[in-house]
């Protein structure tokens, strides 16, 4: 180990390692996942030419509920809401655990 590494124990570690050590990794990952989900739904809506009003109608929900789903900062999304969004877009929802 070089003298530089002795001074900084984080040299050579990843940002994920740092977040895990600080107890922040799970929160950071959930925020990232929600942002990806919101982006994917927005992108699919745009690709299909589906307005927010039409999407809410297809999901049988209110426009404000759809706005919460599309808000990358709002983490109060249920599996049922995601399933309704997938169906409204003609897609299947797939959730899996990864290593």
3D structure, described in words:
The chain is built from six helices and no strands. Helices cover 63% and strands 0% of the residues. The radius of gyration is 19 Å and the shape is elongated. The chain starts with a helix and ends in an 11-residue tail after the last helix.
> In terms of structural class, how would the helical and strand content be classed?
mainly alpha
Poorly predicted spans: none
The major β-sheet equals: none
Q: Count the E strands.
A: 0
For the terminal residues, how far apart are their CA atoms? 30 Å
CATH topology: 434 Repressor (Amino-terminal Domain)
Shape: elongated
What is the CATH architecture annotation? Orthogonal Bundle
| CATH H-level superfamily title | lambda repressor-like DNA-binding domains
Q: Name the helicity range.
A: 55-70%
The proportion of residues in beta strands is: under 5%
DSSP summary: helix tally = 6
Oligomer: single chain
Write down the domain tally: 1
What is the H-and-E element order?
A: HHHHHH
**What does the radius of gyration come to?**
19 Å
In short:
This protein is mainly alpha-helical and 99 residues long.
């Amino acid at each position: 180990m070089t003298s530089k590494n002795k001074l900084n124990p984080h040299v050579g570690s990843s940002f994920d390692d740092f977040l895990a050590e600080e107890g922040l990794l799970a929160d950071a990952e959930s925020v990232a996942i929600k942002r990806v989900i919101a982006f994917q739904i927005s992108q699919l809506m745009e690709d299909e030419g589906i307005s927010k009003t039409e999407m809410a109608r297809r999901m049988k929900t209110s426009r404000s509920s759809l706005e919460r789903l599309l808000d990358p900062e709002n983490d109060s999304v249920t599996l049922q809401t995601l399933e309704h969004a997938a169906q409204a877009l003609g897609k299947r929802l797939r959730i899996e655990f990864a290593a």
